[in-house]
Amino acid sequence: MVEKLVIKGGKELSGTLRVDGAKNSAVALIPATILADSDVTIEGLPDISDVHTLYAILEELGGKVHANPDAVTIDPSNLVDMPLPNGNVKKLRASYYLMGAMLGRFKKAVIGLPGGCYLGPRPIDQHIKGFEALGATVTNEQGAIYLRADELKGARIYLDVVSVGATINIMLAAVKAKGQTVIENAAKEPEIIDVATLLSSMGAKIKGAGTDTIRIDGVEQLHGCRHTIIPDRIEAGTFMILAAAAGSGIKVENIIPAHMEAVKAKLVEAGVDIKMDEDSAYIGKSPALKKVDIKTYAYPGFPTDLQQPMTTLLAGATGSSVVTDTIYPSRFKHIDELKRMGGKFKLQSRAAIVTGPTQLIGATVTASDLRAGASLVIAGLAADGVTEIHGVEHIERGYGRIIEKLEGIGADICKVTHVEEVV
Ligand code: EPU
């Protein structure tokens, strides 16, 4: 069976888009519950396939997962340290958080090398450096990472690369280690603060999350708690860009404005009309947009996860914009698809040059990864005619109820399932 999204572009889009809980927090918060000895309830998790895959993994390990629309309760008390070399762990990148969490709880773990979006090489050497510094032996055997430790002891760990995943993974492994761990050159993304907040509510002692030095004093035991996830700043940014590219007045609600500074600044520079409120952004019908140059950086810089949606928007702006991705220099697989829709792009090392304004035209395209998918959905909404997007499973990994949400603002979008034709 093959699924595709079919979008009839050029509709008048207005109304409200509500942002869900942050995917990149959710995929760390769920593994973090492994470290507790009783029920952890998390409110506001997004309804996306990565979250469902993690529930399935916890159930495979003997955890109990009670998921309601508003909150999930995870009982980790009967979890076992079963090896997970294959299967569900291969479906998402964030399964690497099972390494830190299981190492922290059981002092051992076997986790298949993670899957997820292919954005060029995505090494995990900094995660491993951290685990080893805490006293673990880490080996890679036939595509799975084996971690073992007699005891985990706090250590001073300097990250050679600012990494969200390594920062969170080391926190997970260190919260129950003996003594103090200091992570230097830590990433500062809001998702790291969210995970530290959950761990602190479970009884962990963490200081400095959100700065580049995090100090963790190990504790013996972590208990259950209740936690509310932060809103997804990348879904929010995607919606703001979508509103600028194809909207006629759209409110994006459930945002933390401080998380949106870089995106807002670049949209304003391009001429987008934005009014921020306490927890929402209103994007008016955009006048003619101007070119802007974008360079992605670690937070609080412009996020790599919005680079692809932004290139779609800039196809409609006057002039040549240079979009450089310093985090994932080859995250440009959406460009060939946007070219099929009439976009004018040139690829250089690390950068795409987007020349506009171009009125995109509907075409059949394929999403190669999650944010490429988001960029194509925006393109389809802004284009004249019908766009068919294959690779829907990538989009569903990170955007919950996307069809329902877009229909709510007037989009003509549906998912079509058909049997693949054999030629
Ligand atoms: N890096 C290393 N070694 C490591 C880890 C990272 O060289 O051990 C490099 C990466 O190759 C990259 C840079 O460091 O060039 C930053 O990578 P980071 O570790 O921060 O990325 P990640 O933790 O694997 C998370 C998000 C990504 C997002 C990046 C950057 C999750 C599950 N994923 O990935 O989200 O692009 O941070 O902000 O949190 C997405 O949501 O579409 C997505 C890909």
Summarize the SSE layout with pairings.
Layout: E1 2-8, E2 13-18, H1 23-32, E3 40-43, H2 49-60, E4 64-67, E5 71-75, H3 97-106, E6 108-112, H4 125-133, E7 137-141, E8 144-148, E9 156-158, H5 164-174, E10 180-184, H6 190-201, E11 205-207, E12 213-217, E13 225-228, H7 233-246, E14 247-253, H8 261-269, E15 274-276, E16 280-283, E17 294-296, H9 307-315, E18 319-325, H10 334-340, E19 344-348, E20 351-356, E21 364-366, H11 370-382, E22 386-390, H12 392-396, H13 402-407, E23 412-418
Parallel strand pairs: 2-14, 3-13, 9-10, 17-18, 21-22
Antiparallel strand pairs: 1-22, 1-23, 3-5, 4-5, 6-8, 7-8, 10-12, 11-12, 14-16, 15-16, 18-20, 19-20
Helix pairs in contact: 1-2, 1-3, 1-6, 3-5, 4-5, 5-6, 7-9, 7-11, 9-11
* CATH architecture annotation of the largest domain: Alpha-beta prism
CATH class of the largest domain: Alpha Beta
**Global morphology:** globular
Mean pLDDT value: 96
Ligands, ions, cofactors? uridine-diphosphate-2(N-acetylglucosaminyl) butyric acid
Question: How many β-strand runs?
Answer: 23
Main sheet properties = 4 strands, mixed
Number of helices: 13
For the record, the count of structural domains works out to 2
Lateral arrangement of strands in the main beta sheet: 21-22-1-23
